[in-house]
Amino acid sequence: GHEVHLASRPHGWPTLENFHLVKVPVPDPGPGQLLVRNVLMSVDPYMRGRMNDAKSYTPPYALGEALDGGAIGEVVASETDAFRPGDLVQHGKGWREYAVLDERGTHRIDPTVAPVSAYLGPLGGIGLTAYAGLLDVAALQPGDAVFVSAAAGAVGSLAGQIAKLKGASRVVGSAGSDEKVRRLLELGFDAAFNYRDQPVRRSLAEAAPEGIDVYFDNVGGDHLEAALSALRLHGRVAICGMIAQYNATEPVPGPRNLALTISKRLTLRGFLLHDHLGLREQFVGEMSGWLRDGRIRYHETVVEGLENAPSAFLGLLRGENLGKMLVRL
Ligand code: NDP
């Protein structure tokens, strides 16, 4: 089998040279373990942080070793009663063709409930991030006006649709191309703009002339600054990600209008998905229903072949994805 190793650490934007495709023997599962052949893997923005040698909420990838991340595999051999060959499982050892897994951290998925890929998207951590960010972190209330950035991406496109389903009065999304803006309107966003057209602050003021109550932040930077200007009294910001700065080589300046948090009594709250797993059951129940009824739609951008996983990841950082970026092995 093959796996993708971290060849070197990027300074600024990563390149293909930072990755290395390596041929390795297919490993043997030990007692209590299983061997899977991966069929699908996820590339995610947080992986950029793990390419740095910096302490964070997940350990850095090691040089000369395989990267890892969310994946779905088919069980090839099992040394545990819990799984049988042919089972489809979700696990954390992506970026490789074959993986040996412990029972712990491996979850069987049911391909009759939803397409397999949905477990790496709307039905998985991506969906839960959007759901928890809106409901737990931003305490969304019916009637709120909501702004979502990176809205044509995996988390953002779900966040916008969930906000509508939960009674938001107006949902505005931003994205990096006119085509993505068109797709957002198709998904039911009330307004959407291309953030490359003019300053975000101006576009947001036009799209939400009466202001916003909630900002779901995937981007940081100019988007966060614009949102602070647009937020109304007691507005809330769920800080999910700040992708605009993941490749920065120097500390980036904070929003220049942060003092608005005082006069408007704003709440800005960062969060990690892992702290909201208590919502999972409720989330899966609600999301399964929405997907079944067609009330939530989702896009995927699928790249073929493990050897193309590095370019899929680089493409994700550049915005080449509509919806979830996935690699099919
Ligand atoms: P996306 O599918 O949204 O892909 C990333 C998108 O970011 C790209 O498609 C691109 O779209 C956009 N983007 C890239 N650079 C910029 C920029 N400089 N300014 C504005 N937009 C940019 O990825 P995910 O849905 O997986 O993740 C979205 C965010 O959520 C990320 O910030 C991620 O780190 C965060 N996240 C946080 C979690 C948590 O627990 N807190 C869990 C999961 C994700 P475009 O063409 O529009 O520029």
TrEMBL record:
InterPro entries (alphabetical): ADH-like_C, ADH_N_2, ER, GroES-like_sf, MDR_fam, NAD(P)-bd_dom_sf
Coiled-coil region: none
Cited Pfam families: ADH_N_2, ADH_zinc_N
Ranges where the Enoyl reductase (ER) domain occurs: 14-327
GO MF terms, alphabetically ordered: oxidoreductase activity, acting on the CH-CH group of donors, NAD or NADP as acceptor
Keywords (A to Z) from UniProt: Oxidoreductase
SMART domains: PKS_ER
PANTHER family linked to this entry: PROSTAGLANDIN REDUCTASE, PROSTAGLANDIN REDUCTASE 1
Protein name: Enoyl reductase (ER) domain-containing protein
Protein source organism: Micromonospora pisi
Taxonomic placement: Bacteria, Bacillati, Actinomycetota, Actinomycetes, Micromonosporales
